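Contributing new records

If you add data, match the layout below exactly. Sequence lines come first and carry their own label; structure lines follow with theirs. Keep one chain per record. Anything else will be rejected by the validation script.
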Amino acid sequence: MAEYVRASTRIPDYLYPKKGSATIFKNKFLETLTKTHPLTPAVIYLPIVSYLIFYSLNKLNFKSLTVAGLFASGVFSWTLAEYLLHRFVFHFEPKTSLGFKIQFMIHGVHHQYPNDPKRLVMPPAASLILALIFWYIFRFSFGIYAFSFFPGFVMGYIIYDMTHYAIHHFKPPKNKLRYLWKHHLQHHYKAPDRAFGVSSPLWDLIFGTTP
């Protein structure tokens, strides 16, 4: 990682990596809400995924192949949502002091303290709000097929969070998945304006944001 820091000429001060953990709120209760155990997404969302698949198969009587296809489409769709959210929402460029505070709270804190284990996944309150928004979008767009598509989308989110945690806290594997480590660490330590995909580099290749 050190070579990335030394080589960097494009990291603004508010995204420059440091060791340790930040304090966002002086209020202890609010501060607690900004910290999340990395297994929280799996604990919350895996039961939802399981129930929706069960509902699709046993209540809506979808064929297994239909459920599998919609589920896989949902997982794939998450990779695009992940890229777009990371690039255009998490990395919006603040122009005011309030903008800097908002940017720091939603993502800048992770760039300043990239190895803080309690700020590697989205707090439940925020992720549940986003999940509800996406659910209603899919329900409106796909009708009852959302019951099979949405759990795939959520599974994509779980995979993203687990991948993100692994990249920051485990050594890269000695196989092709090693590229994900290199790709994301370039985003942190060399080029925060590139490499927005975490669970997949596909959309960086398509949109020309590969380092």
